[in-house]
Amino acid sequence: MACNSAGCKSGCDGYSEDGEKEHESRPTTDCNGDAPVSNSTEPSRNRICVKCKTNETIAASGVGAGLRGDGGRFCADCFKSNLYWKFRFSVTSNDMISPADNVLVAFSGGPSSRVALHFVSEMQDKAQKNFEASRDRALPVFGVGIAFVDEQSVSAIPHHEFDKAIEQMKLIVSNLAPPLKQFHVVRTESVYSLKPADGRERLKKLIDVITDTTGKEDLLEHMRMLALQKFAIENGYTKIVLGKCTSRIACHVLEATVKFLSNHTRAKS
């Protein structure tokens, strides 16, 4: 690399391979060589999306200040398309969703489940367009339904807030690309084949038996999955999509590890 500095003996001309001054694109030192001196601002090319070469990256735009990884390389649109491509590749390469499937997306209204819902909806939209464009129309388009697990019976959140959240989720679902998708509200106590009131009372008694917070969370997670599976079987859904983020999965792994070590220690003693 070229530098053209007084102490350089390489015979270079001060230009790097891309034609820019080398000493202008990196920090310099003072005359003693031991105190860093701030140079010019970060080159604009490092703030531009590496894919479209037009828009600012998510981190540079201030939306994700301090964001590393892909957020520092892509703009918002390219980040979304790149993430969707990874999602679609993972689903199709592992045959997670087939044309004959009827998919139930668990939707809580949070960012992770919302991304999963939009990506599944986008895949269905593309499959629908391909189906309409084909002459033989041999491959059907997989169905999509959305389910929200209502935990009012075991939650301290006021009922009116649950109702407001449900209305907001219905609005989100109604704005998805066609074909029309059904929105279902699945109550946690539906795991019991009883009247709703009896199911709520039985679930409350079961929750009250457990004293530690982590144990209650684990039980609610288990009951939530049972409710989704029971609803899916009864309504003809063949797959369930969960929008779990990596942070939540990591927490679950750590919790399971701690519980295993704790139980193992008790067994030894």
Short description:
The protein has 269 residues and is an alpha/beta fold. Helix content is 43%, strand content 10%.
Account of the protein in words:
- Keywords: Cytoplasm, tRNA processing.
- One of its GO terms (molecular function) is sulfurtransferase activity.
- Residues 18-27 have a biased composition (Basic and acidic residues).
- Residues 1-43 are annotated as: Disordered.
- This is Cytoplasmic tRNA 2-thiolation protein 2.
- With 269 residues, the protein is of the alpha/beta class.
- It has two domains: 1-40, no CATH class; 97-268, 3-Layer(aba) Sandwich (Rossmann fold).
- It contains six helices and six strands, in the order E-E-H-E-H-E-H-E-H-H-E-H.
- It has helices at residues 76-93, 111-133, 159-174, 196-209, 213-234, 246-268; strands spanning 28-29, 36-37, 102-106, 143-150, 182-187, 239-242.
- A four-stranded parallel β-sheet has the order 5-4-3-6.
- Strand 1 and strand 2 form a beta hairpin.
- The radius of gyration is 27 Å and the shape is globular.
- Mean pLDDT is 79; it is low at 13-44.
